[in-house]
Amino acid sequence: MVNQTPEASAYSANCKAVAKVFVQTSYHGGEFDQPISMDGLIKRTGLSKDDVKKGIDDLGSEMVLFQGDTHSIAPHAKLYAVFDSFWMSWNPADDALTLAKAMINEENFPTDPSQISDFMAWEPRRLNPAMTFMAFHHLADTHDSEDGSPWIYNLLMKNAETSRYIHNMA
User: Fold this and answer.
1) Which segments of 68-169 does DSSP mark as H helices, in order?
2) Residue 75 pairs with which residues in a beta bridge?
3) What is the Cα–Cα distance from 34 to 27, expressed in whole angstroms?
4) How far apart are CA 118 and CA 91, in angstroms?
5) In the beta sheet, which residues pair with residue 157?
6) What are the C-alpha distances in Å from 21 to residues 100, 117, 157?
7) pLDDT tens column, 133-156
8) Pairwise pLDDT comparison (14 vs 147), residue with the higher score
9) Which long-range contacts (CB under 8 A, 24 or more apart) does 32-38 make?
10) Does the pLDDT value for residue 8 go beyond 90?
């Protein structure tokens, strides 16, 4: 499935080819999920080394960690929040709105991602990009997870912007 979002459609074809590899190989849609070598990206994208580098440059440091040709290239979580809508069956921006509505409207909405996952019936691969979208747009308060779990955050809580977001999107 390919959905065109305004933010993602501004990127070059080389950039999208690189992003597609990360989106389609990710297990959890989290920080540094499935790093890949330069040679691996060249092979998976079918692009030349120069074109892969151009794609990485277009993505920028907010989307990927690139430390040269001999190191693995690793995605940052924001890449999934922007590019999942191109190749996955969900759109993190839409999911963030759904999540925000549930956070406001459900009296006992959980703050723990594993409980949110159960509540929303979303696997980590879908929930993480939605939470990342919310975090990057300051639509919820988060706390980074460092326990090696599939969750990029170990806490997601509504804030004043959560309600404003729902109101502005109505």
Assistant:
1) 77-87, 92-105, 113-120, 124-136, 160-169
2) 64
3) 7
4) 19
5) 141
6) 29, 25, 31
7) 999 999 999 998 877 689 999 999
8) 14
9) 32/65, 32/74, 32/75, 32/76, 33/75, 33/77, 33/80, 34/75, 35/72, 35/73, 35/74, 35/75, 36/72, 36/73, 37/72, 37/73, 38/69, 38/70, 38/73
10) no
49 in Cβ contact with 89 (< 8 Å): no
CA distance 35 to 141: 27
DSSP 141: E
- DSSP 8-state symbol, 36: B
- CA–CA gap between residue 141 and residue 143 (Å, rounded): 7
Q: For 35-78, what is each residue's pLDDT tens digit?
A: 999 999 999 999 999 999 999 999 999 999 887 778 899 999 99
Which whole-number Å values give the CA distances from 62 to 54, 82, 91, 97, 149, in the listed order? 15, 11, 19, 22, 22
**Residue 90 confidence (pLDDT) above 70:** yes
